[in-house]
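Technical annex B. To support the medicinal chemistry partners, we prepared a structural model of the target in complex with (~{Z})-2-methylbut-2-enedioic acid, based solely on the information shown next.
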Amino acid sequence: MEMTQLIALVKELKQERRVTILAHNYQEGPIQEVADFVGDSLKLAQFAGTVESPTILFCGVHFMAETAAMLCPNKKVLVPDLAAGCSLADMVIPQQVRAWKEKHPDGAAVCYINTSAAVKAECDYCCTSSNGEIVIEAIPPEKEILFVPDYYLGSYLKQKTGREIQLWKGYCPAHAVIDPGQIEHLREAHPDAEFLMHPECGCLTKQMDLADQILSTDGMTQYVKHSSSKSFIIATENGILYRMRKENPDKVFIPASEHAGCHHMQRNTLEKVYRSLVTGEFQVTVDPAVAERALVPIRRMMEISRPAPIQPVPIEEWADWVLAAANDFR
Ligand code: CIZ
């Protein structure tokens, strides 16, 4: 079947079965085409809370569907592929958070949204890359902060807020493959392009001081709309390029690496979306006792989050700490 036919079929079926399709910014183009809403994990979680249909088909990765299931206990939350997990989220387990907190009994544990519900249940606050700074700033200043699992986002927040933050050494493999040498080459080849980097990027070397903005995916999609630049080098998972190109047909988007693809996000395909609509599989549920505890940091984050994302930060402001963080990580 042609892709356009499958897109039409999925759109028809989701109406008929009363299913709302949510898609993360990193999902492939055909999935974004059938989605009722495309966004980052925070906006998707906020949107999930407003959905009226009895079923949500969540096209992203497992922790995102868990968040939607916890926020919408009366809805059925489906995913196209149960194996679409998150390598970064898998880098910390609840027992490790508990043990870390025991060593820092007065600390506040902050988890990136890229964590399982079971890890969230051990934490005091949750954050995304678009609201990390305001979440950290909302924590009483005397509190030491334990941040899991992304080392690079944690380093960024440490520099931005000046807070005492202990960092877990997790990382996102899709962002880790972005090679600073390639970025240097791309910057030379496209001198007018702005270079936008996600704070999960692991290529924290001196080349990164060539970057212009450090932004979450939501920040990036907004920034490119309003910038007067006509071309951009994008350092994050490449699925986002589809949305950027669609929303800004007069602008050029160059991936910082052709290899920056998340194999978990890529497990979801339009064929699997269709299959889920037909079969009603695969449902994601969270143990109610875990959900009750995990919702505490999630709700705190949602209360703290302003609707507007954090402002882009010029790279000059944090180039020095980036180098220090890179050395520390090695
Ligand atoms: O919060 C999200 O959706 C992720 C994983 C990244 C981002 O910057 O949006």
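Notes passed to the chemistry partners:
The radius of gyration is 19 Å.
Residues 24, 40-42, 113-114, 128-129, 198, 216-218 surround (~{Z})-2-methylbut-2-enedioic acid (CB under 6 Å).
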